[in-house]
Amino acid sequence: MCACWCCSAARAQCIASCGNAALNLHAISRHSKGDTRVNVGVLNAGTGRNVVPANAVLKFETRANNTAVSQYMHEEATRIIKASAEMYDVNVTFSIMGQGINCESDAVLVERVKYVATTTGIFNDILPTVNFGGGENCTFLMKRVQECGGQANYIIIGTELADGHHNSRFDFNEDAMLLGVILLSNIVEDILGH
Questions:
Q1: Can you tell me the distance from the alpha carbon of 165 to that of 159, in angstroms, rounded to the nearest whole number?
Q2: CB-based burial label for 131 (10 Å; 0-12, 13-18, 19+)
Q3: Which residue among 66, 98, 130 closes a domain?
Q4: Does residue 6 carry a pLDDT above 80?
Q5: Domains in the chain: how many in total?
Q6: Which of 191, 180, 12 is CA-nearest to residue 108?
């Protein structure tokens, strides 16, 4: 869940409430049925160093590796935000900006993509599945395709990274994008040929 929380109250409690929420979002208990993550990426309030903030904005994201645990994270984050606002007697608006659900690639399509990737001869390692601990909004599209009788597959083209995901130094070797185009065009050719 990606969310934006806006607090409005022209008094010091606004930033205190926002700060309290940020601290307690990071304190959400982890779940025994799946991996979870939470990150407050933006905390912004006020217009000057000697001006009581009229509002505060908190942008954060929760993630989990399955839908049930993701729902748990969503409920806990919502509870914390409401409790922080109530504790400091401020008004809060809460907007969900995005989220991911659990979705598995279709085994038949995984094997087909693996076969096509092997025949291109451009990949050193081909792994049919990898638990990379991430979640993506594209899982909604995958799930809908599967609900309508289609097949879906999530593909990652690996390459060297300048630094890990979700930090200001993240970058990747863009030459890998060409490999992705080659793979996808070969997959389309294979599907249309059958």
A1: 13
A2: exposed
A3: 98
A4: no
A5: 2
A6: 191
Domain CATH for 46: 3.30.70.360
19 and 94 part of one domain: yes
Say whether both 70 and 125 belong to one domain. no
How crowded is residue 45: how many other Cβ atoms within 10 Å of its Cβ? 19
User: Tokens standing for 140?
Assistant: 């909604």
Query: End of a domain among 98, 123, 147?
Result: 98
Chain Cα centroid distance, residue 148: 24
Which amino acid type is present at position 75? E
Mind listing the pLDDT tens digit for each residue in 68-78? 888 999 999 99
Under the banding of pLDDT at 50, 70 and 90, the label for residue 163 is: confident
Contacts 24+ apart (CB under 8 A), 159-168: 165/134, 166/39
- Determine how β-strand 55-64 pairs with β-strand 2-8: antiparallel
Q: Which domain holds residue 128?
A: 107-193
Q: pTM for this structure? A: 0.71
Distance CA 15, CA 57 (A): 9
8 A C-beta contact, residue 109 and residue 22:
no
Q: How large is the angle between the packed helices 67-87 and 13-25, nearest 10 degrees?
A: 150
Question: How far apart are the C-alpha atoms of 80 and 71, rounded to whole Å?
Answer: 14
C-alpha 184, offset from chain centre: 24
